[in-house]
Amino acid sequence: MAEAPLWRGDGSVRCYVGLGSNLDDPILQVRRGLTALAALPDTMVVQPSSLYRSPPMGPPGQPDYVNAVCALATRLPAPRLLAHLQGIEDRHGRVRGPVRWGPRILDLDLLLYGDAELPGPDLTVPHPGLAERAFVLYPLLEIAPDLEVPILGPIASLIRNCPIAGLEKIG
To answer: What count of Cα atoms within 13 Å lies in the side-chain half-sphere of residue 162?
Structure first.
């Protein structure tokens, strides 16, 4: 993935964050999440995607999700950026429960951090499952059509193997 520093010669890293919500006015929650990303220290929003509605991938009976992806340029190291993302989730009422992929007010996932490959118990980049999630790939394609995903390859190739599966662009 080609790096495009936002600040001249400062070593900022282009990263991508996935946003999702299916509770408490999900469109508003995702927009609030984007606003919070713009307020992060040493970080600038480069480009948010449109909003997309998608069926939940977790337990049945949940409302549909609203998703987006946002490109950022940041000087924050990946673990610190992740801590800020989790702090935003907490401030927006995110409750981490025992149910995996359950309903949530706001979910922020660090999808990509430059061309880094970070395998770890607390942070894995590229985000696991990225290649199978239409609600991540299609917004990524919208804002970064030439993106090369570390380990996985060009975003355009990943899209060919990931059906749209109920994903609907809503704004």
So the answer is: 19
Residues annotated as part of the active site = 94, 104, 107, 109
14-36 exposure pattern, b = at least 16 Cβ within 10 A, e = fewer: bbbbbbbbbbeebeebbbbbbeb
Residue 76 is assigned to a structural domain of this protein? yes
Average pLDDT per 10 consecutive residues for the chain, totaling 171 residues: 49 95 96 98 96 91 96 96 96 76 89 93 90 96 97 95 93 69
CB atoms within 10 A of CB 48: 22
User: Looking at the domain assignment, is residue 4 inside a domain?
Assistant: no
Domain of 34, in residue numbers? 13-169
Tell me the pTM. 0.92
- The bridge status of strand 52-54 relative to strand 168-169 is antiparallel
